[in-house]
Amino acid sequence: GAVVSQHPSWVICKSGTSVKIECRSLDFQATTMFWYRQFPKQSLMLMATSNEGSKATYEQGVEKDKFLINHASLTLSTLTVTSAHPEDSSFYICSAGLAGTYEQYFGPGTRLTVT
Amino acid sequence: TQLLEQSPQFLSIQEGENLTVYCNSSSVFSSLQWYRQEPGEGPVLLVTVVTGGEVKKLKRLTFQFGDARKDSSLHITAAQPGDTGLYLCAGPSAGSYQLTFGKGTKLSVIP
Prior knowledge:
- The structure holds two protein chains of two kinds.
- Chain A has strands spanning 4-7, 10-13, 19-25, 32-38, 44-51, 57-58, 67-73, 76-81, 90-97, 104-106, 110-114.
- By secondary structure, chain A is mostly beta strands.
- In chain A, a hairpin with a 2-residue loop joins strand 7 and strand 8.
- Chain A is globular.
- The A-B interface holds A 2, 4, 6, 32, 34, 41-44, 46, 49, 91, 93, 95, 97, 101-109, 111 and B 30-31, 33, 35, 40-45, 48, 88, 90-92, 96-99, 101-104, 106.
């Protein structure tokens, strides 16, 4: 149980284009999902907390107009990187919170490369 | 701000050896979680410890939560190459469901 999928697993895009990443909880409902960014050899950096049906809460220093988050259902959250630049290249990971606990279940991640 | 410090940062050992990694804080956590992350993948939850002094075993992995709930350890017996990965501890941030992560211990088990 508690499986989270992420799509795509990797994507290459050109500068200036937008990329959408989907995060789905497959066998449980997640009122809260989280988006992280991870640089090589580093730990996870929380970008934003996404609550179903409401606006996402962004961490300090994360541009909300650049990283658009939508959490329209209890099983799906999306992250859209708008007007991508090479410095946005990174490993993006989502997680879904298990209701009533502090446990988070992570997706397999999406490797974004902006050329 | 609640911080979690993990040590050692890197650990390279031979197959069959035992090891312990640590997760320490000056703050009290209601619970702590341990994750293992392999390169190019998302972290996988290994265990959640909730009660001070609690010990949980997962095959060759033994997790302990400190009595004061400020620290935790992970002990691996007879390490295998499949144990290689980044071990992360995490605890809930005060007043939210967000997790505070340590910087991780990168373990390499050499066959």
